[in-house]
Amino acid sequence: MTKLALFLFGILMLSCVDKSDSKTLELSPESISEGILDTLNIDLLASKIFWKGTKMMGLGKHEGEIAFQTGYLVQENSQLIGGEFLVDMNSMTVTDIPATDPIPIRNLTNHLKSADFFNVDKYPFSTFRIVEIKKVENGDLRIIGDLEIKGITNRISFKAEEFENRFKAAVEIDRFDWDIAYSGSWVDRTLVDREIELRIELALY
What we know:
The protein is 17% helix and 48% strand. With 205 residues, the chain is an alpha+beta fold. Strand 5 and strand 6 (141-149) form a beta hairpin. 20% of the residues are buried.
């Protein structure tokens, strides 16, 4: 990465980080100009997000995938310190219904993309911005960052496994925190459990 590109990248990241009490990603012009920062782009074909939602009281579930639009990690002196990922919500698929049943697949996919859930027409992308990465037990990583879905941003924290330029993580979010729910009655809003499970696999070039 050129020094000019690094400088522009640093300005962008400084404008995005959250000024909270926790230690966040801090990029100085000196570190950028000295070339000690670098970005590691993810392999979009090999990187995936797997989602799972469970119906109320465990009366069934649905699963599927969502694709990354772009993504990179930030490295300083060979240590990961941050990153940012853009997720294409229009890429959402359903994988637990057999391909021989295209109508149920289409109906569920359209329902998930509708205003009842992710409102993809209005919010076609979701983002995750890492503000801190810590080494924890067994060499794993503790990832802290801001997840934006439907224009709503909440901070989340989760553990990730790292091995040979690949990362795996499992995240559980409360969909109500991002207004991923019916707008009707409480009964309508709770037809599926609050929790959405996300399993993430990242591969670097």
